[in-house]
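Supplementary Methods S3. Input chains for the assembly prediction are listed below.
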Amino acid sequence: MFSPNGCYSHTPNLRVRPVKEMKSCVVFRPNPPKLFMLNLNAWLIFELCDGSSLDDVTQRYRKSVAAQMSEREADRHLETGIRNLHDEGLIELKLTD
Amino acid sequence: MSNVDPTLLSANLIAGERLTPPTVKPIEPEVRSGGFFPFCDLLKHGEGADLTQLLGNSTLLGALVIEWGYDVPFDKHDDFKGWLIRNEAEIVKYQPKDIYYRGTYAVSATSEKHSGLYRTIWSFTTLHALETFSDAMHTGSDFARLVDELCSYRDRERGADNSQQMYQPVRCAHRFG
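Predicted C-alpha cells for the full assembly:
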C-alpha cells in the first residue's frame, strides 16, 4: 500500500467538507457509506494525495510540516496517514510501471 | 454536503499548530427520536378520580413537563443568579393559563454528560397549553420578554452543552416502543 511505484489520489465520488473552525475535515465515503473526521494532519495528507507520486507527496508533506517536525518524524506521520486513509477507502493507489 | 475544494486550506491552517499524528475517525451518527410514548392529554384520558387534586397540589406537575438543559458561561453565573432572584416571581405572575414555570435549577450531580449544568422546568396542564406557550412567545408580552431574557444567559457557543427532556405522567402513558 505504501508504494514508491504509484500515485495516490482521492477515491472517486467522495464528498469533502472542511471544518475550518475545528481545523479538521469531514469526508463522506459513499460506498460503503460512512462519514469520517480527519484531523488537521490527516487532512493535509489527504489533500496532497491528488494523483501525485509518493515521492512528490513526501516532498510536499515534509515542506509543509518542516516547522513542526523533523523529516524522519514527518515520514512516520505520512506513512501512518496514508495507511489510515487507504484502509478507510478515502484514497487509492494506482500502480505505475 | 457540498463538495468544497479544500486545496491548500489545511496547509494554511498548519502554521503555528502543534501537529498530532494523523487520525481518520469514523463518525457514528446518533439518532435520538425518543418517541416511546405518544403524548396523552391527562385530563381527557387519564384514569382516576383524583387527577384534579393531584394537579392542584402539584403531586403531578402537569400533563406534560418539559425540562430545558443548558449551560451558562462561568462568568455569567452571578448575573444569571441575580436575574432569577429578581424575576422568577415575575415569570409566574405573567405565565399564561395552564402553563407553569417550575423553577430553574443548578445540576449538582448528573450521569448525563453534555446535558448542561442548568435546568429550567415547565409544566403544561393540557397539551393545548403547548400551543398557548408558542402563541405567547409571539405576542411581545411580558411573559415573552422574561422567557427571552432567561434564555439570553444560555451559552450559545458552538459545542455548548444542552438538552431537552419531555415527560408525562405514567398513569396516562401508553407505551408502544
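The two ends of chain B are 32 Å apart (CA to CA). The helical segments of chain B are 9-14, 42-45, 51-56, 77-94, 128-136, 142-152.
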